[in-house]
Write the structure tokens for this entry.
Amino acid sequence: MTIRAILHYPDKRLRVPGVPVTEFDTSLGELIDDMAETMYAAPGVGLAAPQIGVSKRVFVIDIATSDDEPSDLRVFVNPEILSREGEISFEEGCLSFPGAREEIKRAERVRVRALDREGKPFELDADGLLAVAIQHENDHLDGKLMVDHLSLLRKRLVHRAMHKRAVASA
Ligand code: GNR
Ligand code: NI
């Protein structure tokens, strides 16, 4: 397993929509293992393949963040959000926007259909942080980012903060 480099906004590869997975082979398994390792190392509650420069419809989530909770890795391949209900405002972070935290409105509950790493379909009802994370990761698969949910003012502020950070670390 390998920890992969996480792309930072405004890297253009974050805007490339993922293509559906068609082969459930060992290379998909390796990608998923690398994504999980990269997510845990960051650490983050989720990671989508486009964030490591792989334009495929795959994301991983583990919302068991505290040290005493057992880890609970969930893998979503070719996910589809079937329904959304309610509204929740949540302070989100994104590994592709280091240091940024922004209040974003999402559906409070979602029903999602996806394939697991073997290509077996499953459906899941989620609420709270899991529902927020599913919507956040699903956005990444469409090249959609946190800033796309913000007002023009907040978007500019985040853009400038990320630009400054990139210049400072160059
Ligand atoms: O680590 C992450 N935390 C987080 C917090 C609130 C809402 C969404 C997230 S996802 C983020 C990891 C990430 O960037 N996934 O794409
Ligand atoms: Ni993100």
